[in-house]
Design brief:
Layout (H helix, E strand, L loop, with lengths): L1 H24 L8 H9 L2 H7 L13 H9 L3 H13 L14 H7 L5 H12 L2 H16 L1 H13 L1 H6 L6 H17 L8 H10 L4 H13 L8 H22 L7 H24 L10 H13 L12 H12 L10 H23 L3 H20 L12 H15 L17
Length: 432
């Protein structure tokens, strides 16, 4: 039995390794996005922290207003990790940020366009987390529906066209997707030490703030403690305090701009985010677009279209399409990079998601703990994105991809549930 157990894990790790090699080998084929320059530019905070920590602290009259603005707006995990990768490889950050009001040539001449070596380093820094993404997808799928669901989740993750594009760039989406899969596994399976789910939740949140609803779900699960009726309220509150302390500690550690004046810095960050979203919305709606999320139905349509039907979006605006179109065409020429991104393919994916929903609802009625928690997280995250997404950019919906993948995996599992499969395990058995 031990031998079979080890063999199964060997097969699992071999699959993850082979798939990850194909994923990483095509990382430079992904079309360049100017926001990658911004992440590489802001990654210099890694060196600044060790050279002069106080230069990163929020100040009412900063010496570098642009860098402080990015600290207020953007989560720190991705630029910090890119900065670490640069430091290890001895490569400098970009001297200037990308300026969207200037031409491609002007940005390149100013030094805002990374050379291939720097871009590869920054992308690999993010892409190297893909094996963990697959592993966490498997573990989350296994917790929800057994070993087969875990394998399906890995396959759907590897073949998802949006993951292949958006997580292979030097931006936040790769860390976000990994963090969400990790968080969903923790929430579904870490029954005895649920307060430790603060670790993956803090990573997801500090990768991109769109993961915030999952933090609230984690707090709710600790207080609700499904299946643990003997736990007293005092014990629940102690666990919640540990959860909040761990989550808050990690978040504070990753955000040194809060250290000197935490209340003023947090207030400034909230104001900066509100102002940015307002300006972005005004700019987005000033142009003609078929996906304008002005109402609930329009938001739902935009979300559905971007998650299931539209081609992988290498750019949100057309400023630099003349310079990037040849690379976009070359990337999309590989049919695997746009797998199922069509009306028929999107309809198939949507149908599998609905089948998964049926399974989740049935499990919730049966009071199955992992599926109930997952369904709660699913609803919370989708409702949050519908309410807050002001522009229908495809990569803004990436936080939802792990939820879609896992629910769809349950849908596929339902389709083959009646087919006799030798060695198939249920969620309660240790098949892997």
């Amino acid at each position: 039995m031990i031998r079979n157990f080890r063999l199964r894990y060997l097969i699992l790790y071999a699959f993850i390794g082979i798939v990850s090699w194909f994923y990483l080998s095509g990382i430079l084929n992904v079309p360049f996005h100017p926001d990658e320059s911004t992440y590489i530019y802001t990654s210099s905070d890694f060196e600044l922290f060790f050279q002069e920590p106080s230069s990163i602290f929020w100040q009412p009259d900063p010496s570098d207003a642009l860098r402080q603005r990015y600290r207020l707006l953007d989560p720190p995990l991705a630029p910090t990790w890119v900065g670490f990768a640069r430091w290890v490889t001895g490569q400098p950050a970009l001297p200037l940020d990308w300026d969207w009001s200037k031409t491609w040539e002007e940005n390149s001449n100013a030094g805002a366009l990374p050379d291939p070596g720097l871009l590869q380093t920054a992308r690999l820094a993010i892409g190297l987390f893909f094996p963990l993404t697959l592993f966490f997808a498997f573990r989350a799928g296994k917790a929800l529906g057994g070993g087969l669901t875990g394998w399906i989740a890995m396959l759907l993750t590897w073949s998802n066209a949006l993951i292949l594009l958006h997580t292979r760039r030097a931006m936040a989406e790769g860390l976000l997707v990994m963090g969400v899969f990790f968080s969903l596994w923790a929430l579904a399976a870490w029954k005895k030490h649920l307060w430790l789910s603060a670790i993956p939740l803090a990573l997801a949140f500090n990768a991109k703030y769109s993961a915030a609803p999952l933090v609230l779900v984690g707090m709710g699960v600790i207080l609700w403690a499904p299946g643990e009726n003997k736990i007293t309220w005092r014990q629940k509150l102690i666990r919640l305090a540990g959860f909040l302390a761990l989550f808050g500690g990690i978040t504070l550690l990753l955000n040194p701009f809060l250290w000197a004046h935490p209340f003023q810095a947090l207030t400034a960050a909230l104001h900066a985010r509100v102002d940015f979203m307002a300006a972005q919305t005004a700019d987005y709606f000033s142009t003609e677009t078929p996906l304008a999320p002005a109402t609930f139905l329009q938001s739902l349509l935009a979300m559905t279209v971007q998650l299931f039907f539209t081609p992988p979006a290498s750019a949100e605006v057309a400023n630099y399409l003349p310079q990037t179109q040849i690379f976009i065409d070359r990337y999309l020429a590989n049919p695997f990079n746009s797998l199922l991104r069509s009306f028929a393919g999107g309809g198939l994916q949507l149908g599998l998601l609905l089948l998964g929903w049926v399974s989740l609802i049935r499990s919730t009625v049966s009071k199955k703990r992992p599926q109930t928690i997952f369904l709660t997280a699913f609803i919370a995250e989708f409702a949050f994105m519908l309410a807050t997404t002001n522009v229908a950019f495809q990569r803004y919906y990436m936080v939802l991809i792990p939820l879609v993948v896992l629910a769809s995996s349950l849908g596929v599992n339902n389709l083959v549930a009646k087919i006799p499969l030798p060695g198939r395990k249920t969620p309660g058995e240790d098949g892997y």
